[in-house]
TrEMBL record:
Pfam families: DegT_DnrJ_EryC1. This is GDP-perosamine synthase. Pathway: Bacterial outer membrane biogenesis; LPS O-antigen biosynthesis. InterPro entries: DegT/StrS_aminotransferase, LegC-like, PyrdxlP-dep_Trfase, PyrdxlP-dep_Trfase_major, PyrdxlP-dep_Trfase_small. The modification N6-(pyridoxal phosphate)lysine is found at K221. It catalyses: GDP-alpha-D-perosamine + 2-oxoglutarate = GDP-4-dehydro-alpha-D-rhamnose + L-glutamate. It is an enzyme of class 2 (transferase). Keywords: Aminotransferase, Pyridoxal phosphate, Transferase. It comes from Paramuribaculum intestinale. One of its GO terms (biological process) is polysaccharide biosynthetic process. The keyword Transmembrane does not apply.
Length: 390
């Protein structure tokens, strides 16, 4: 690993993104090259900018059709979608929820909002998502299913009500086995598909394989609504319940204000949904473009000694939200981050592992060996759509 290599990588990235001298290549910028302005104007002209409006319904039904979900419900952001997914999975105060240590903070914050505690189980080397082997091993050693059909932690006595798998950087985790293990252990599986909109696992969309999936449309994601999120369901009844709870649990009536439970103001405004409709029209092109960039990176890094480019797992089609490379060790990682950020290329290490944060330093883990190794060596490199030519 020499500065020569770093220089070559920098030039390759500048070339791929057609960057002018002195221009910084961002990690991931949004692309607005379709009907965004037109639909936003429509919102303003019709005065439907807020809680009701045609774009909300349209975005939900078009996303359901695109992903094959039985129902889709928009939310104010991805974190709210995850919180709602946990509530709908009957996660209660005092429960434990299994997830991976390598994820964005939102996954664990959402678990904390319910009053449950996270248990951190390691990731797979090949997917960077929750490992079914590690999950099964941990459950066999630490859990059993009680007479009421609840999975319990044998040490703490707490109910293990749910597990959240996150499809890291858009690469689908091994869902078949995760679904099977969670069914056998009476644990509700949730897909944090915030990063993987449009990614396929054996031909099916991530977010639609577990009973509930959560998406994010934050500004740095593959498609954006400014801020926003979505719940995907394989069961329509659950989708209707989600719509009710995310809209203050108001009983439909022309003028009366009756609410039948504690609800949430988690709905997405119509102007954000308008952006979503315009972005969804371009999503297949965005993914094709991002996959071209990923393929170019893959071929380029074949000729760089000591750096491994992270590719989509077998049997999947990743949206390659964020491209990632693995350096030999933490020292090389830090030199690379320093060099690229000094030379106009935005690169980032992966998130601090969740159990390294103050809030979860005493949380249970299974040793998380793979996560620790990956966290030392991984760097995300520029991954946005290369040109607004749609
Ligand atoms: C982006 C993201 C979320 C949701 O983020 P919001 O900003 O609330 O939309 C959740 N989980 C992961 C893994 C993410 O990357």
């Amino acid at each position: 690993m020499t500065n020569n290599d770093f220089c070559e990588i920098t030039q390759f990235i500048r070339h791929n993104y057609n960057a002018a001298d002195g221009q910084t290549v961002a990690l991931h910028s949004p692309t607005f090259a379709g009907n965004e302005k037109k639909y936003l104007e429509e919102c303003i002209d019709t005065t439907f900018v807020s809680s009701v409006g045609a774009f909300v319904d349209r975005f939900e039904s078009e996303m359901a059709r695109y992903t094959g979900a039985a129902g889709a419900v928009v939310t104010v952001n991805g974190t709210a979608a995850l919180h709602m997914a946990l509530i709908l999975s009957d996660v209660e105060r005092g429960d434990e929820v299994i997830t991976q240590p390598l994820t964005f903070i939102a996954t664990c914050n959402a678990i904390a909002y319910t009053g449950a505690s996270p248990v951190f189980i390691d990731i797979d080397r090949s997917t960077l998502g929750l490992s079914p082997d590690a999950l099964e091993a941990w459950l066999e050693a630490n859990a059993d299913v009680d007479n009421n059909g609840n999975c319990r932690n044998k040490t703490t006595g707490a109910r293990i009500s749910a597990a959240v798998v996150m499809h890291t950087f858009g690469h689908p985790a091994r869902l078949d086995r995760l679904v099977d293990i969670c069914e056998r252990w009476h644990i509700k599986l949730i897909e944090d598909a915030a990063e993987s909109v449009g990614s396929l696992y054996h031909g099916r969309h991530t977010g639609t394989i577990a009973p509930i999936g959560a998406l994010s449309f934050n500004g740095n994601k593959t498609i954006t609504t400014g801020g926003g999120g979505m719940l995907l369901f394989s069961d329509e009844t659950m989708a209707r319940r989600a719509k009710h709870l995310t809209t203050q649990a108001k009983v439909p009536h022309r003028w009366e204000f009756i609410h039948d439970s504690i609800g949430y103001n988690y709905r997405m405004p119509n102007i954000n949904a308008a952006l979503g409709c315009a972005q969804l029209e371009q999503l297949p092109n965005f993914i094709a473009d991002k996959r071209r960039t990923a393929e170019a990176y893959r071929r380029f890094f074949e000729n760089i000694d000591g750096i491994e480019f992270v590719t989509e797992p077998e049997g999947t089609r990743s949206n390659y939200w964020l491209n990632a490379i693995l350096l030999p060790d933490r020292t090389a990682r830090d030199s690379f981050l320093e060099y690229t950020n000094n030379h106009g290329i935005q690169t980032r290490p992966v998130w601090e592992l969740m159990p390294n944060l103050r809030m979860w330093e005493s949380a249970a883990t299974d040793g998380i060996r793979v996560s620790r190794d990956i966290a030392d060596r991984l760097v995300n490199i520029p991954s946005g759509v290369t040109a607004p030519r749609y």
